[in-house]
Amino acid sequence: MPRHWLFKSEPSVFSIADLARVKSTSWDGVRNYQARNMLRDDVKLGDKVLIYHSNAEPTGIAGVGTVSMPGHPDETAFDRRHEHYDPKSLRENPTWFLVDVRHEQTFPHVITRDMLGSDPVAKGMMVLRKGSRLSIQPVTPDEFKAVLRLAK
DNA sequence: GCCAACGTTGGC
DNA sequence: GCCAACGTTGGC
Fold this sequence. Notes:
Elements: E1 4-9, H1 16-22, E2 24-26, H2 33-41, E3 48-53, E4 60-73, E5 97-112, H3 113-118, E6 136-139, H4 141-150
Parallel strand pairs: 1-3
Antiparallel strand pairs: 1-6, 2-5, 3-4, 4-5
The structure holds a DNA duplex.
């Protein structure tokens, strides 16, 4: 039984349209320990991912992806010239992990925070909580279904 | 651009 | 281990 997640991205950096174009990507650059733990331990092959556009117009959920490869080390942390380079992360003992995500669908319209907040189920989502900065968040099956309904 | 909320760092 | 200072996130 696949689990459900919400991954944040600033669309000016990487958007659902970018994901649709490249088909599949390594979700690199997550540099938060709580998010790391989920990427390393909890996000499994086949899990569904809501792609959330933050710092955007409109802000909200833009589509769905599927986990095509579970947690493995984030190679960008080893690359001295990469902006996500972290000298503390060593190949023999990596600090940072990522998963690969394949594009599944782009919603016909972004599901805005207002729309989520108006839905009796979706309004409970972590992403709506004030100060919710976690970039990898768990989503319940019911919340996921509610978002898909709102996307129609 | 503002600023509240949060995570991390580092002095003690 | 505490906690103030700092940097970042992200909605508005």
